[in-house]
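Expect chain and fold; thus:
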Amino acid sequence: MEYLRLNNGVRMPMVGFGTWDIRGKKGKACILEALEVGYRLIDTAQMYDNEDIVGEAIKESGIDRKELFITTKLHQPWASYSKAKKGIEQSLINLKTDYIDLLLIHEPYENALEMYQAFQKASQSGTVRAIGISNFNIAKYESFIQHCNILPAVNQVESHIYYPQFDLKAVMAQHGTQMQAWGSFTEGRKDIFKEALLIEIGAKYHKSAAQVALRYLVQNKVAVIPKSAHKDRMKENIDIFDFELSSEDMDQIRTFDTGSSLFRWY
């Protein structure tokens, strides 16, 4: 596993395990398998309604909490200063932990700055190690940071070969905010696993199209949190650090960029 340093010095794994739509006993079993395979970053959110099973899986895994990196997010019901404070407390209870490694505002809500003030307090108290945002485009990001005492460590956004958002990444890099990608495989919006070019490039390195797609982002310094319910695919998604795409490969993959979101998020 490779790590990167966030703007406050906290180390974050480049590849994590996404838990969107993973719930119940089967969901907990998936998280336990991901931890067994070697994932150390687990990404969840109150909106996902699965913080409880993330907490249970972490406890049952027996892995030292210090080895793990837990990300969660607060959404609209917590969109004020006082509500966000309560939301943080609720996440700590749900996750059965004394601290959260990365806490994000799930979307650019009208009261996002009020929420962020609560995040900053939690960061200063030590209950949260790093704070950030999610789904902020360039305009919203630039407006938001003008009012922050602590610059966001991460902006988690849609990013994949069809819409990598490297322009946003470049703007954020000027201020020290790391991009982290959700939807790296497009969540079924495109059949990325059957892209002929990715398959062709992967064959040179004995890698799959999925591994090439993830490697493209990671090699561009974008952290990723792919999700899979299958153990073999979990192993595949984390096994991307023993090869490097050539500059020619990178240029070819860049041609997939349409400049448009597949989710109409922005």
